[in-house]
Amino acid sequence: MGTISASRPKSNLIQARPCRLISTVERKSGETKWRKVFRPSFLACTGIFIGFVFFCNLVVNEPYTYTGPWNVSALMDSIKPAAYSNCTCAPPEDSDRRNRSQVQCPKPAKRPGTETLPQGIVEATTDLELRHLWKRKAKEPVGPQNLLAMAVGLKQKKTVDKIIQKFPAENFTFMLFHYDGKVDGWMDLKWGPQAIHVIAANQTKWWFAKRFLHPDVVAKYNYIFLWDEDLGVEHFHVNRYLGIMQDEGLEISQPALDSKLSEVHHRLTVRQPKVRVHKRLMTGAGSVKSCDNSSTGPPCTGWVEMMAPVFSRAAWRCTWHLIQNDLVHAWGLDFKLGYCAQGVRSEKVGIIDSEYIIHEGIPSLGGESKDKTAKTDSGNSTTLLEGSTTDSEAVDERTEIRLRSKAELHDFSRRWKRAAGSDPDWRDPYEVTIPPEDDHDATGNRVRRR
Ligand SMILES: *[C@@H]1O[C@H](CO)[C@@H](O)[C@H](O)[C@H]1NC(C)=O
Ligand SMILES: *[C@@H]1O[C@H](CO)[C@@H](O)[C@H](O)[C@H]1NC(C)=O
Ligand SMILES: *[C@@H]1O[C@H](CO)[C@@H](O)[C@H](O)[C@H]1NC(C)=O
Ligand SMILES: *[C@@H]1O[C@H](CO)[C@@H](O)[C@H](O)[C@H]1NC(C)=O
Ligand SMILES: *[C@@H]1O[C@H](CO)[C@@H](O)[C@H](O)[C@H]1NC(C)=O
Ligand SMILES: *[C@@H]1O[C@H](CO)[C@@H](O)[C@H](O)[C@H]1NC(C)=O
Ligand SMILES: *[C@@H]1O[C@H](CO)[C@@H](O)[C@H](O)[C@H]1NC(C)=O
Questions:
Q1: Residue 96 lies in a domain
Q2: Ligand 3 pocket test: which of 86, 98, 101 has the largest number of ligand atoms within 8 Å of its C-beta?
Q3: Suppose 256 and one of 353, 359, 378, 431 were both cysteines; which one would form an S-S bond, judging by CB atoms 3.0 to 4.6 Å apart?
Q4: How far apart are CA 347 and CA 67, in angstroms?
Q5: Could you read off the pLDDT of 319-376 as tens digits, one per residue?
Q6: Which of 101, 121, 141 is at the close of a domain?
Q7: Quick check: is 275 in a domain?
Q8: Res. 45 pLDDT band, cuts 50 70 90
Q9: How do strand 310-312 and strand 231-232 relate by DSSP bridges?
Q10: Domains identified in the chain, total number
Q11: Which residue's CA is the closest to the ligand 4 atom numbered 3?
Q12: Residue 395 within a domain
């Protein structure tokens, strides 16, 4: 079946509108009610409920017809704690709901903080739409709504403008994170005043995403593009891209990188010109790191790079929880994205080859590369900024950032290991071994070709 959520059962975030499931469970006194709220089976059912809500969303919002050959149920059975198995979230309408011999999901918990409110007034999620001060919106927007969020600096104005031009405003909300604090320079662009602008000096895309793209804030958007600013999009068409993502049942994807013109870090993401989508890398026999059609995880399959990921709503809800507040470079996160894939990662995560991009590889936040003049925009907005850092300062900063990123990769791996070891309810559906550090180099080194 379509999408199964792997949401952690502990989440209490309930988004109740699209499918109301269980309405009558006998009322209990306050104390027992609270014990009930914290019962593991209840939490587990809450997880299922959230999953079901997403499932309903998908079914309602878009025809989700993919029926692939993989066996998601086998995987999900292995993830689910035993308590899940007998919990039926959708009892037949005519069944006696108080028949306690059948295990049912209890009534969803009230969101913490809303206990004193009539539940019908609770707005659990929001969006990033601008509202007119006095006019009511004539009608809701037509197409499905998606979000494009990018961390940008004014130096990349032309490139960013080209990217945003590729996304129809009718179907997209734009959110720009300005790490250089210069927001005025964007207002002369056609879409500038329509975008949401957030300023926080010298922060990374992941810092912004963690703070401003909470799943309840972006719950409206079917797909979330969390992109870098140094991408060439001449060969990218977003409607076709999303069509392919749906056809292929992808929950996390990225456009392939043109191999000739891009700065390439990982071979998995290099464009394979003859196919529409690829989900795994095949290396020749004899490689030390050999990837073939039996590989089940990174670096061969089941992940995308951090420069241009696209998430489905459900995958983003999971991914957001994976981002660590303090690990702002997010190194190592990409290799774990498969756990948010809403199914088997080698099937639900993919690289779309027919709509591909060029990764220009301009280090922007935190100093500039030596060849900046060749690549950055010319023009007055740029000259304002130039001279703020000398080359050697910039190089120093890049080195520091790189060291910091590597340290973060260490921390992240350690936290993951610790969490995996200390959660008795969690089983690794992939049983992967954590890759050695030097395999993973998110911002600088070209991939070692053999
Ligand atoms: C998928 O896995 C489940 C549980 O292991 C099994 O019952 C079912 O037959 C499998 N389906 C296919 C198509 O392999
Ligand atoms: C689920 O139901 C089966 C029989 O229908 C039973 O054997 C099993 O113990 C139940 N599991 C739980 C967790 O209640
Ligand atoms: C309750 O469920 C049991 C077993 O599923 C069934 O035998 C019984 O008839 C049900 N009772 C009612 C009132 O539906
Ligand atoms: C918006 O999305 C819908 C559905 O995917 C599509 O038919 C429509 O062409 C899109 N609008 C634009 C301007 O591309
Ligand atoms: C941001 O980084 C630049 C370059 O390192 C530095 O000059 C500037 O002072 C920083 N701004 C803040 C607010 O930290
Ligand atoms: C793996 O790929 C090889 C060559 O492409 C093919 O011959 C083989 O059947 C594949 N094996 C599986 C299990 O798909
Ligand atoms: C920069 O601004 C000056 C005047 O302020 C103008 O004459 C010049 O053409 C501008 N240069 C570019 C590249 O826009």
A1: yes
A2: 101
A3: 353
A4: 11
A5: 999 999 999 999 999 999 999 999 999 999 999 999 999 998 876 676 544 333 333 3
A6: 121
A7: yes
A8: low
A9: unpaired
A10: 2
A11: 143
A12: yes
